[in-house]
Every structure is written in C-alpha cells, then in structure tokens.
Amino acid sequence: MDIQERMPLYKALHKHIQLNSTSFHVPGHKNGLLFQGQSNILAADITEISGMDDLYHPTGIIMEAQQLLTSLYRSDQSLFLVGGSTVGNLSMIYGTCTEGDTVLVQRNCHKSIIHGLILAKVVPVFMEPEYDYETGIAKGVAVNTVKEAVTLHPHAKAIILTYPNYYGMVDPIQEVIQFAHSVDLPVLVDEAHGAHFIGKGPFPHSSFELGADVVVQSAHKTLPTLTMGAFLHIREGLVDAHTIREALAILQTSSPSYLIMASLDYARSYLGTFSDEDYVFWQQYRQEIVSCLHSIQAIECIDRSNDDPLKITIRMSSGENGQTLQRYLEGKGIFPEFSDPRYVLLIFPLFKVKHEQQATGYLKVLKEALQNLPYDFTKRLKEEMKNYRDFGQSKVHIPEIPLYQVKQTKKKWLSLSSAVGHVSGGMIIPYPPGIPLLMPGEVIQQHHIQYLHEISKNNIHVQGDGWDLDQYILVLA
Fold it and tell me: Which residues does the UniProt record annotate as the domain Orn/Lys/Arg decarboxylases family 1 pyridoxal-P attachment site (predicted)?
C-alpha cells in the first residue's frame, strides 16, 4: 500500500464514531445528542480524549498524520492548522521576527500579514508588485525590487511574499528566493491558494519546493478539507521551527477541531494518491473547459499555461462589470468565487479519474448557463485609468509611523480635500488591482487624492478600513 493512502487521524475518528459511545466530555452537544435530528456528523466533533492524541504535544495519530504531511511536501516539519492561513501567517511572522526588526513585505498581501506585522511590532518595508498589463491585475514582486529594498535596508531580517495571487497567477518566485538566501534573508510565503502545488502534472511548483523557508497554505481553498483547515511547512536553517510552534500554541485555539484535523488528514491522502492517470485526466479536462469557454462569443477567457489550472478567470466580451456576470450566474445556480469590476473568478474542483461523471456535469452546467448569456449588455468600462504606481515613485516604501503605533493612536475622518499631509490611519485598497493605495502610517500625498478622485468617477470598488463610502479618509488625529 502507498504510504500516502494512510489516514491515521481520519480513520481513528471514524472508528471512534462507530463505538456509539456515551459522552461525558466536551463539547456540550454530546456527540450531537442535543441537536435536532441527532446528527451523526457531530459525533466526530470530540476533544482530546484517550486515543485521540494532542495537536500541541502529538505522540500518536496526529503525530503520524503530520509526519505523512511532512513526507508529501518534503519539508523538515509540516503542521496542521485549525485557524486557517490567518493563524499560520500570524505565527510565521511572530515566531520568526522580534520587536523592532525591519521586514520586507510584498505590498499586495493579505490583511492577516498586516495584522502579523502589527502583532510582532516590526517595521515593514513595502515592495510594489508587478502588474499584468493585459488584465491590470497585480502579481508578485520582481527580483530587482527586492534587490533595491535590500540595498536601502541592509539590516532587514526577513522577506514576506504572496504566491500565487488570488487569480492563480504565478511568478518566477525562485529568483527572489535565491537572491534572499544569498543575503541570508529567510523567505516567508503566504501560499494560501497553493495547497495543491506539489509540482506534478499541470500544477505549478510550490514556493516551498522552490526553496522558501516557511510556507502557509489554506488547504480548504482547493483540497477536500473543512473551512479553516490549513497547512504550515517549515525548512529549518534560517528559521527556528520551535519558536514558530510556540507562536502557534499562543495564537491558535487550545481546543482544536478534530473534524478539521481529520479532514486535513483526508485531504493530504487525497492529494498524495493523485496518480499519473489522474493528472492526465485533469489536464485534458482543463483543456475541455478552456475550449468550451473560448467557443462562447459573449465570454473572454484568460488562459495562461503557467498559472494555476484550477482557476479560470472570465469576463464578458461587452466589457460589462464583473458583478453583473456574477449575479447572472448566481441566478442560474452557479456561485463563482469572486468578481471585480472586470472579471469573474471560477475555481474548479480537483477531480480525479473516478469523478469523470461529476466533472462532465460541472462543465455542462457552466456551458449551458453561459451559452444563454444575453447579448444586450451594452455598458462598457470607461477608459482605463493611469496606474497610480506610474507616478515615478520608488517601488520600495517605508511608512513614516510604524503599524503598531498607528493602532494605538487616536484617529479621525477627513474629507479628500483636507487629507493631504496627514498620516493615513487605515488601508485603502482599490479593486482592481488589489494593492493598497495607502497603508496605515503613510503620509497622504496629492497623487493619492488625485487617484481617489479618479476611482470615484470610474465607480471602482474600494476595500479597507481607511476609506468611507462618503469619500472620507481615516487619518491620525
């Protein structure tokens, strides 16, 4: 038997359910007894009773399950996370950096990275990513930008990257990793959308496989895992696994969900037993998807051979807003992952050969919905705005006030016309491209205001806690 077929934690939990035991332990639903219908699913929601091991001091089934995970990803240590990639990102920063450290950070990062920087009380140096000029979507950081950041901040202690981006776009991250290691910088990667990246078949290589030191993956995003299930992989040398585990014990719940952990064990086995035949099947299936989408006149399909094949980005040929297409699909019973003013993102299941019938059904439903897409959409996006990063600025920025100090400072709201010269009290993130225009602690300049006026005129969606829908900016008082 292939060792990756083993599921020690999943099997032990299943065996425990079969005992039909009487619960005198937490949680309070008592194996689902107190829920209407007495759900058998809830019988698996248990705690650290005899035979079920302990996530933070594993000696039995959890230890074996994590060893199998370590073997699959060829790490020094791989760990289960029950708090999603969020707790992994917080822990890799808190467990690697110390207060006052300078840290190089890819600017288009997840908010959990920002929260980790605040928690660790480090000084971030933000690096601008590159753009895909066909789509306007932000990608990864170029190695030359990293070199500039290291030249300007030679005492930096770590570099934090995001790979792939939300749309599944991958970049030559190996160049950045190799350069960082040449100057003894550990590389920490938020790889939330790459749990299925193990360098086989049509799928890209994981940043861990390419040399990164700590990698966090949201297994629940692309693998058959319950929500909040994630992996953390560690390569020892430039980082200390012990301090990262200590950070996890501090930041993650002391009552981990066995349902989530068992699903992580199952997902690892599911991926680990993906055969060559399964990879061939999926590659052919993906080609069918792309051919189908290209055949529909009302749809444009963004197809890049090097990106994550699980993700497909589409837009309407008419240029209609992506949210319009999302609402249309939802009316047909198809719920996309995400939409922005241009695009709709679809994430397909990681089917195996045995799922051929379900795979065919998925494609049929999508094709029928899109073939009936009405052609009377006449709105078009206005003329593309100048990229706000084309103002001749350096691609490396350091906030005037550290993030953790911003958190502790009183704030107030100002109108756009009054905000120049003040310090931003929050994040302002235009979508697209999804890169913060302003980070907490950065001084608001005239070109920021100019760009925000353009955003308003073009009805571009803005995220972040530093922006009010009435066009006010949060600043330090």
Answer: 8-278
| Residue 35 confidence (pLDDT) above 80 | no
Rounded Cα distance between 438 and 448, Å, is 8
The larger pLDDT score, comparing residue 282 to residue 28, is at 282
Tokens standing for residue 247: 């950070």
Tokens of 440: 């907490």
Q: Tell me the per-residue pLDDT of 200-259, one tens digit each, with 9 for 90 and over.
A: 888 999 999 999 999 999 999 999 999 999 999 999 999 999 999 999 999 999 999 999
Q: Is the pLDDT of residue 182 over 50?
A: yes
Which of 362, 361, 357, 358 shows the shortest CA–CA distance to 346? Answer: 362
CB 328 within 8 Å of CB 418: no
Which residue, among 329, 74, 25, has the nearest Cα to 200 in the 3D structure?
Answer: 74
pTM for the whole structure? 0.89
